[in-house]
Amino acid sequence: MMRTLLLLVCLAASALAAQNPSDTSDAAQTQQLRDQIRARWRQVVRRQLDLKPDQAGKLEETEARFATQRRAIAQRQRGVQEALRGQLQPGVAG
């Protein structure tokens, strides 16, 4: 159960972090939500793994190092999914 919760929180944070809001008036609210999700994620991980402060710091550094790659992968995945949806529409030959 907790493993599923952690996975869902991680996926939600990744998806939110990868989004580029089209309406800049929502950008601050979106960023605030991302920050809240990340903070909550860090709390849950620290508690579940019983990390010491130095271990939690190392984990945060590692997550930050790979965040850019995660966002790029999520963006490519969205592009592929959109292309597939377009190809799977009735009457669309590819």
Structural account:
The model has no long low-confidence stretch (mean pLDDT 82). The longest helix is centred in the last third of the chain and has 36 residues, at 53-88. The protein has a domain at 1-18 and 30-63. It is 81% helix and 0% strand. It has helices at residues 2-18, 27-49, 53-88. With 94 residues, the protein is mainly alpha-helical. It contains three helices and no strands. The chain is elongated.
Keywords:
single chain; 94 residues; mainly alpha; 3 helices
Count of extended strands: 0
Distance between the termini: 42 Å
Radius of gyration: 17 Å
Q: Unreliable stretches, pLDDT < 50, 5 or more residues?
A: none
How do the SSEs run, as a string of H and E? Answer: HHH
Strand composition percent: under 5%
Q: What is the makeup of the main sheet? A: none
Residues in helices, as a percent range: over 70%
Q: Which whole number gives the mean pLDDT?
A: 82
Number of helices: 3
| Shape summary | elongated
**Sheet/helix structural class:** mainly alpha
Question: What is the compact description of this entry?
Answer:
Helices cover 81% and strands 0% of the residues. The chain has 94 residues and is mainly alpha-helical.
